[in-house]
Amino acid sequence: MEQSTIIAIAIAVIIVAIILYLIHRANQPVTPPVPVPHPIIVKPIIGGCKGTRYGCCPDGVTPRADYYGTNCYYMPPPPHHPPHHPPHHDE
To answer: Structure pTM?
Structure first.
């Protein structure tokens, strides 16, 4: 075989391989990107959050943006510490 024939066959094989790759890639399912949640920004209200339409978040400061409080961040209750009693000494 002549060198020009070998080069033509190699180029044809490369082109067929690229076409097969593109066909295979086009048939793959596309996973849509997951939307990133954005916090709802609520403007501060003069007089506090208690006078707003939906009241306050559990922090008592942030006004709720809607009925469900979707803009409120969960804050666990403070830990309960039993009262400290100093040791009793009998004399």
So the answer is: 0.33
Distance of CA 67 to the CA centre of its chain: 22
Is residue 13 within 8 Å of 7, Cβ to Cβ? no
Tokens of 3: 């060198």
Distances, alpha carbon 24 to alpha carbons 10, 12, 90, in Å: 21, 18, 87
Provide the token pair at 61: 């400061």
- pLDDT given at position 72: 86
Q: What DSSP line would sit under 25-82, residue for residue?
A: HHTSPPPPPPPPP-PPP----TT-GGGSSS-B-TTSSSBPSSTT-TTPPP-PPPPP-P
Residues paired with residue 71 on neighbouring β-strands, in sequence order:
none
CB atoms near residue 33 (< 10 Å): 6
pLDDT tens across 20-69, in order? 998 888 777 777 778 777 777 766 656 678 888 899 988 888 888 898 88
